[in-house]
Amino acid sequence: MTRHGGTARLACEARVLVFNAVLVQRVVDEIWNAGKLELADELFAPTYVNHGGLIPDLVQGPEGIKFSVAFYRAAFPGLHVAVDDLAVDKDAVTLCWTAAGQAAADATRGTLIGVTRSLVVDGQIMESWTSWDARLALERLGVVQSDQSAAPG
């Protein structure tokens, strides 16, 4: 391979890495924070599946994303997701995030931290794996009791 061909290949790979990072950043900024749910059709593959969340593998396709985001935005008014770190390795993007909002159930404010690793194929997110403290979210929604409030006093 010529030196020029290697440089062109690296430039192409760099563009893909930047595209993948921008894609995930758009999901946070435009879908989660701005509520532009219709963008899910563009940014997520029709066969998308999230292997994390409250019920693993439940969120599927762009419609699943729209429902999930609408649910969390309603449950936590003023929800804002901040990108703490974003790393790209070929077709995988790892996003470390902090979500802050007010629980609709009792108006308490709080934060959750998590990590989402997304697989990008042909310019769309195909799969993701999310890990976060789901029990804490359920406590803030009033669905389950916290370990502290459930303990006998």
Description:
By secondary structure, the protein is of the alpha+beta class. Helices cover 41% and strands 33% of the residues. It is built from five helices and five strands, in the order ααβαββββαα. The chain has helices spanning 3-33, 40-43, 61-75, 134-141, 147-150; strands at residues 44-50, 80-89, 92-102, 109-121, 124-132. It has a five-stranded mixed beta sheet. The longest helix is centred in the N-terminal third of the chain and has 31 residues, at 3-33. The protein is elongated and about 60 Å long.
Please specify the SSE layout and strand pairing.
Layout: H1 3-33, H2 40-43, E1 44-50, H3 61-75, E2 80-89, E3 92-102, E4 109-121, E5 124-132, H4 134-141, H5 147-150
Helix content: 40-55%
Structural class: alpha+beta
- The N- and C-terminal alpha carbons lie at a distance of 73 Å
Q: Unreliable runs, pLDDT <50, ≥5 residues?
A: none
Spatial shape: elongated
Q: How many beta strands in the DSSP annotation? A: 5
Main β-sheet, in a few words?
A: 5 strands, mixed
Proportion in β-strands: 25-35%
**Number of helical stretches of at least 4 residues:** 5
Strand order of the largest sheet: 1-5-4-3-2
Please give the radius of gyration in angstroms.
18 Å
**Average pLDDT figure:** 87
Order of helices and strands: HHEHEEEEHH
